[in-house]
Design brief:
alpha/beta; Rossmann fold; 7-stranded mixed sheet; globular; binds S-adenosylmethionine; S-adenosylmethionine-dependent methyltransferase activity; Methyltransf_25; methyltransferase; S-adenosyl-L-methionine
Length: 213
Amino acid sequence: MGREFLSLFDHWAESYDDTVSGHDEQYEEVFRRYPAILKEIVERSGQYVLEFGSGTGNLTAALLREDKKVFGVEPSDAMKKAALQKGIPNVFHDGDFLSFPAPPFEPDTIVSSYAFHHLTDEEKKQAIHIYSNILHSGGKIVFADTMFQNQAAHQAEIDKAKAAGFNQLAEDLGTEYYPSIDVLKQIFEEEGFSTSFYQMNDFVWIVEAKKRE
Ligand SMILES: C[S@@+](CC[C@H](N)C(=O)[O-])C[C@H]1O[C@@H](n2cnc3c(N)ncnc32)[C@H](O)[C@@H]1O
């Protein structure tokens, strides 16, 4: 479920790491400070980490370097293959945000970078409900993704992308399910989490949601 954008990633897998390095002008701002964004997630994570949408494994590798146990969930075979080709240990499993195998440990942290916007807001709610049942009090969800303060800010970025001739970015911003911060905050709060949001560039914010006692 929530896999409607999967074919995009099967095609993007080979060049994805060039994009995150800033080589695609349209996505330069989206991926500005990418290493710092992954580092922030790692620093906010506990020892037992469940990761969704691991892609080519950049966040996975950063977590493993800090000796954390990681259970990666990724629906695209091509992305998993790209991660393994880089020599990242095979901690990856087929699945998605809503349907995934049980990790062999109790996660204290659930992480994701640049992926949660593939779910509609209704699916996001279902996902957070599932995670609320997995995590104990004090457990955390740490997600980095494109999100906007409100609808007007979202529309302003679409208009800016169009004016710059960044048609692919404009279409992406208009069709995928980038949330507004208020909606996301409400979803987390309703499922028993306290949230903090940190802006990392013009598009990407980190949400840290801690399960209340
Ligand atoms: C933009 S990439 C991000 C990869 C990596 N997390 C990073 O930060 O570079 C988005 C990833 O989410 C995956 N994805 C797409 N739909 C998904 C879903 N419903 N559940 C989990 N992952 C999904 C894609 O296959 C892709 O690997």
